[in-house]
Specification:
alpha/beta, binds glutamine
């Protein structure tokens, strides 16, 4: 039978439930268990696809084309196994399902209520992945903080669920904060006590407390927390601030979180955790032999969470190359023909980020002109690739006012155009070209060399595309389309001839980079940037 672990948060938000969940999952996986993590978010959007990145950071896209919370990216990067639509559920989706059932007459004249109908639907969703038979353990992360009005139905659903599956088959891990009061020189346990009391009020006794802290918890503090929160002392887990999120699994191992969890779930400890590759990754991450400065040109750079997967992909690729990648955030709206040189000089590579809408578009074009003309490694992702096509159209092919029809519907040269199937789309949510599609790479291209094969699959999230009417012009002038979707011939990759590294990808390689499998395009981009740095 599948065992269920719930992870709740107390005291404040942003304690890193996603990283704790992913770290625990990693440890359980490393002991031979089949584990997955799902996230339940208490907001009413059906999915985060329609949210501005300023709200919740990047929108992560799964293989099956679900637009999801960025925590799913952490789950995949840690576990190296794909997630799916079933791994991210929102209040909006729960209500949508219940309301659809009401319209179908499924409730037989009953009054439809939060309890039992919404809580039943939440519980049904808790079980979906567990019932697939693919997992021994399902970790469910509940978004929000205990005490939030909107989290209440989830907490109640957890209470009922635990009663239904019986003891030993589920457990609750509560993540809390132990603040340090500098004036008193003390760590304080009271907020944790209050937060556990609140959970108790809702009928849930947490089994394990993971305590975020800036200072080590001594035995006295651990005893105090255990006593006042009704848990064993070995169930008080210290989670001290770590230099990197990738250290957290090892810190949790040291605290024996995995052992405590397995004992409470009555599962055999099996083998000792097998973390050789993880440790060697950390070794390379922490002992770089060089450093490169890469500019990330984007419109949401004030909020690095907006580019989470890109930043993590640089960490993976940096470790592979034993180089520290220093990412410098450059707001694209600030770049003009007059200041691009000043703002970009000294960088060893430039990545132009994905995005939507007009703001910052011209700045991205300027950045690309500069790196193309100066042989500085360039990597364009999605909108970044589209900008590279526009830039080349304007400045090399001489197509005056060439643009994407997203930015200028009246452009005389729509080198980037809305995809045919998108033209009839009315609704915004979940309607882009989403998820994994195959791509055939041209033999002899740089892309083929980087991937080491000709058939690849990558994830997408866009409405606009390279306009194939211009294919020959681009090819003849040296911006080579080298990756195509085999079914409909959409251009998925462009690369510039006679440039050390100039690659644009219509897909999102950053969504597939993991600790175990750093992405080849990022690895080669970082390597090219290192080569450029050495020549300076
Ligand atoms: N706005 C562009 C499109 O819809 C690019 C999207 C993106 O960068 N994810 O095609």
């Amino acid at each position: 039978m599948t065992k269920y672990i719930f992870v709740t948060g107390g005291v404040t938000s942003s304690l890193g439930k996603g990283i704790i969940s992913a770290s625990l999952a990693k440890l359980l996986q490393s002991r031979g268990y089949r584990v997955t993590i799902q996230k339940f978010d208490p907001y009413i959007n059906i999915d985060p696809g329609t949210l501005n990145p300023y709200e919740h950071g990047e929108c992560y896209v799964t293989e099956d084309g679900a637009e999801t919370d960025l925590d799913l990216g952490h789950y995949e990067r840690f576990l190296n196994t794909p997630t799916s639509k079933a791994n991210n559920i929102t209040t909006g989706r729960i209500y949508q399902n219940v309301i659809n059932m009401e319209r179908e007459g499924k409730f037989l004249g009953k009054t439809v209520q939060v309890v039992p109908h919404i809580t039943d639907e939440i519980k049904r969703n808790f079980r979906i992945l567990g019932e697939s038979g693919d997992y021994d353990i399902v970790i469910t992360e509940l978004g929000g903080t205990v005490g939030d009005i909107e989290s209440l139905p989830y907490i109640e659903a957890v209470r009922q669920f635990r009663w239904e599956v019986g003891s030993g088959n589920s457990l609750v891990i509560h993540l809390t904060l132990i603040p340090f009061l500098a004036a008193a020189g003390e760590l304080k346990t009271k907020p944790t006590q209050h937060s556990v009391k609140m959970l108790l009020e809702y009928g849930i006794q947490p089994d394990i407390l993971v305590c975020r802290t800036e200072h080590h918890l001594n035995t006295d503090i651990r005893k105090k927390i255990a006593l006042f929160c009704n848990v064993n002392i070995n169930a008080v887990i210290e989670s001290i601030d770590a230099p990197s999120i990738y250290d957290v699994p090892l810190l949790m191992l040291k605290e024996q979180l995995d052992k405590t969890v397995l004992t409470k779930l009555k599962l055999p400890h099996k083998v000792e955790p097998e973390l050789v590759n993880w440790k060697s990754f950390l070794g390379r991450l922490k002992n770089p032999t060089s450093e490169v400065r890469i500019g990330l040109v984007g419109k949401y750079v004030e909020l690095p969470d907006a580019y989470k997967s890109i930043v993590e992909s640089f960490i993976h690729a940096g470790a592979t190359n034993e180089s520290k990648v220093k990412v410098e955030y450059i707001p694209s709206e600030m770049l003009t023909p007059g200041n691009a040189v000043e703002r970009l000089k000294g960088l060893h590579g430039v990545l132009v980020a994905p995005g939507f809408g007009e703001r910052g578009f011209e700045g991205k074009i300027e950045a690309i002109r500069y790196v193309r003309e100066n042989n500085i490694p360039f990597f364009g992702i999605c909108l970044g690739m589209q900008c590279a096509v526009v830039e080349f159209g304007r400045n090399v092919l001489g197509l005056k006012n060439a643009s994407s029809t997203e930015m200028n519907p009246e452009t005389p040269h729509p080198v980037i155009n809305m995809m045919e199937e998108q033209k009839k789309v009315v609704n915004k949510g979940g309607t882009m070209r989403l998820g994994a599609y195959g791509c055939e790479l041209k033999k002899g291209s740089k892309a083929e060399k980087f991937y080491g094969k000709t058939r690849i699959s990558e994830r997408h999230r866009h409405r606009y595309e390279f306009n194939n009417d211009y294919l020959k012009d681009y090819e003849n002038a040296g911006l080579l389309p080298t990756g195509f979707n085999p079914e409909n011939n959409l251009v998925e990759i462009v690369e510039l001839k006679n440039h050390p590294f100039f690659v644009g990808a219509q897909f999102h390689p950053e969504l597939k980079s993991t600790v175990a499998n750093p992405h080849p395009l990022f690895i080669n981009f970082v390597a090219a940037s290192m080569a450029y740095a050495r020549k300076q």
